[in-house]
């Protein structure tokens, strides 16, 4: 199989695979974290719900772009809508992951003042912020993207915004900056958990009122750290690719056909790896949290009345 064929196959089957895997994952997250009372007591639930919603939106945009009749090249309206919502959903999903990482850092901090930042009240106030913020920031994509002759590809119609998007919004906001934020809060949370001997006692004494809730907060922290590690691994190739493109942007016109084919393939491949961020959160929670698996099993038994019946003598 040639590189061109591999790129074509990946551009078609990659989005379809991510969508079906991600739909089950994110829909399951929304059902479990809303349906189980214990999860609703954690501030991270707000961020997981927001992330699941935006993940589904991002996966839908990825899928639509792979279908010729609904892709950005189908019409001027579809071009504007696809570009706009693609730029809104993906950064919003990453923003909810930042908030989850920040919440876990605050939750595990020794400082009482910092731990107060991890609360349902604050999480509920911040829930709408990523939606509103990115909806406003990405308005130029709706205004300055259109089908441009003679090729009628969906590209930028404003040269200044094209430069801003190419050198700032796409590489920094979409990949490099989220990667730095997640690494920083991941390291800080790890230090809070494993570098301080009295973290658990401080959490139980000053923040949590019952032992069961304390246990769930610990499980939520493990789940969020696991998801953060996955996101770092999936975002790193995309960030490296963006840095490479920025370095050779003025030399692309001089590249040979074979070199351009490799660049296009790496673009599709790193985009697919980055798309895993939006599809696997539920499976990561299942893999790294035994209590999460047990809670789902108990919830399903209650929903479908599968509890064991015992006959007394």
UniProtKB/TrEMBL annotation:
PROSITE patterns: G_PROTEIN_RECEP_F1_2. Residues 25-285 form the G-protein coupled receptors family 1 profile domain. One of its GO terms (cellular component) is plasma membrane. It is a multi-pass membrane protein. GO terms for molecular function: G protein-coupled receptor activity. The keyword Nucleotide-binding does not apply. SUPFAM superfamilies: Family A G protein-coupled receptor-like (SSF81321). The chain crosses the membrane at residues 12-34, 46-64, 84-102, 122-144, 164-188, 229-249, 269-288. The keyword Transmembrane helix applies. It is found in: Membrane. Keywords: G-protein coupled receptor, Membrane, Receptor, Transducer, Transmembrane, Transmembrane helix. This is G-protein coupled receptors family 1 profile domain-containing protein. It comes from Adineta steineri.
């Amino acid at each position: 199989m040639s590189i061109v064929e591999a790129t074509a196959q990946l551009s078609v089957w990659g989005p379809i695979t991510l969508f079906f895997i991600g739909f089950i994952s994110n829909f399951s997250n929304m059902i479990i974290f809303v349906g189980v009372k214990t999860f609703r007591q954690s501030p991270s639930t707000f961020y997981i719900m927001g992330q699941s919603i935006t993940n589904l939106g991002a996966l839908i945009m990825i899928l639509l772009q792979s279908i010729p009749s609904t892709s950005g090249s189908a019409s001027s309206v579809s071009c504007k809508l696809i570009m706009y919502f693609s730029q809104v959903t993906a950064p919003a999903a990453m923003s909810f992951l930042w908030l989850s990482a920040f919440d876990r850092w605050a939750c595990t901090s020794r400082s009482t003042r910092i731990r107060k930042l991890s609360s349902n009240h604050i999480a509920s106030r911040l829930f709408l912020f990523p939606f509103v913020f990115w909806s406003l920031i990405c308005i130029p994509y709706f205004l300055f993207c259109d089908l441009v002759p003679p090729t009628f590809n969906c590209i930028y119609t404003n040269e200044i915004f094209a430069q801003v998007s190419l050198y700032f919004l796409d590489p920094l906001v979409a990949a490099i900056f989220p990667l730095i934020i997640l690494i920083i809060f991941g390291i800080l949370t790890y230090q809070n958990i494993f570098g301080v001997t009295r973290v658990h006692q401080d959490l139980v004494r000053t923040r949590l009122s019952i032992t069961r809730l304390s246990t769930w907060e610990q499980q939520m922290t493990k789940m969020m750290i696991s998801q953060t590690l996955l996101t770092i691994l999936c975002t790193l190739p995309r960030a490296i690719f963006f840095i490479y493109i920025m370095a050779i942007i003025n030399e692309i016109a001089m590249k040979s056909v074979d070199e351009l084919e490799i660049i296009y393939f790496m673009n599709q491949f790193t985009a697919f790896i980055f798309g895993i961020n939006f599809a696997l959160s539920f499976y990561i929670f299942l893999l790294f949290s035994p209590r999460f698996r047990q809670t789902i099993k108990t919830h399903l038994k209650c929903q479908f009345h599968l509890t064991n019946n015992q006959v007394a003598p």
